[in-house]
């Protein structure tokens, strides 16, 4: 009798094991079909469109800054060399004509100062220095303001990514609420992971933009120092020359 019961129990156990092996596990199916990186990016939704636009703007600004924020935009050795003979010969008219053809910032400040001197022959040294300083400050402000744009994009990108994540999580919870199957936890994990892609992309764009801003901000400050260092002696020569002509 005991042998019969033992044999029956073994048969039941073997049948249960065979049935368990024939049922596919959902987790295995999920592992065998992983999402690619491109699928994750697409799953972030429409927020990737403004993030793409921000990325393009950051790249465009970086290229623009690399082409414009250079020492040659402030002063060149040729400009300093060509200006000296005009001061030695006391030729203000020739100096003004030469400066009008030069695009450098130092030339722009000197030309603006010369125009003020021509319009105000009785101006003293303090007035001339104030005019030159005001024009130099305007150029320095433009340099600083120019690089601020990339910082604005660096702040905007993570905010767009966070907004996309919030929208994705709300959409994921909405889908889970309508799903009657017991796989809600798996659906929630997949939806949240896809929603976080927007934040990840926004952080990548933002960090890149802020790193570039830090570099170009230093470059702009160096150019402002270069402007002040080259403009001060030239302006003093112009003031001394103006005094000799006024006597």
Tell how many strands the DSSP assignment holds.
0
Q: What is the domain tally? A: 1
Ends: how far apart?
137 Å
Class derived from helix and strand content: mainly alpha
Task: Calculate the mean pLDDT score and round it.
Answer: 77
Shape: rod-shaped
Taking the sheet with the most strands, its summary is:
none
Helical content band = over 70%
Query: Which residues form runs of ≥5 with pLDDT under 50?
Result: 1-6, 10-14, 16-32
Write the layout of secondary structure elements.
Layout: H1 2-22, H2 26-32, H3 37-43, H4 48-68, H5 77-88, H6 92-100, H7 105-119, H8 125-177, H9 184-246
Helix pairs in contact: 4-8, 4-9, 6-7, 7-8, 7-9, 8-9
Describe this protein's structure.
The structure is a single chain. The longest helix is centred in the C-terminal third of the chain and has 63 residues. It is built from nine helices and no strands. The protein is rod-shaped and about 85 Å long. It is 84% helix and 0% strand. The protein is mainly alpha-helical and 247 residues long. It has one domain.
Features:
disordered N terminus; 84% helix; 0% strand; 247 residues; 9 helices
What's the short version?
The chain has 247 residues and is an all-alpha fold. It has one domain (36-246).
């Amino acid at each position: 009798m005991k042998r019969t019961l033992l044999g029956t129990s073994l048969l039941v156990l073997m049948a249960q094991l065979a049935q368990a092996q024939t049922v596919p596990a959902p987790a295995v199916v999920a592992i065998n079909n992983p999402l690619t990186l491109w699928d994750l990016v697409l799953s972030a939704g429409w927020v990737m469109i403004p993030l793409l636009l921000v990325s393009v703007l950051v790249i465009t600004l970086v290229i623009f800054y690399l082409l414009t924020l250079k020492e040659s935009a402030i002063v060149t050795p040729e400009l300093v060399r060509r200006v000296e003979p005009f001061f030695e010969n006391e030729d203000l008219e020739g100096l003004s004509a030469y400066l009008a053809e030069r695009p450098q910032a130092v030339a722009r400040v000197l030309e603006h100062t010369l125009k003020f001197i021509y319009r105000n022959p009785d101006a003293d040294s303090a007035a001339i220095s104030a005019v030159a300083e005001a024009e130099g400050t305007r150029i320095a402000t433009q340099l600083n303001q120019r690089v601020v744009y990339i910082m604005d994009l660096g702040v905007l990108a993570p905010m767009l990514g966070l907004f996309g994540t919030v929208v994705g999580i709300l959409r994921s919870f909405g889908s889970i609420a309508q799903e009657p199957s017991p796989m809600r936890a798996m659906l929630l994990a997949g939806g949240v992971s896809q929603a976080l892609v927007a934040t990840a992309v926004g952080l990548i764009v933002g960090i890149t933009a802020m790193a570039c801003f830090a570099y170009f901000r230093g470059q702009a400050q160096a150019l402002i120092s270069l402007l002040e260092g080259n403009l001060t002696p030239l302006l003093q020569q112009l003031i001394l020359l103006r005094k000799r002509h006024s006597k």
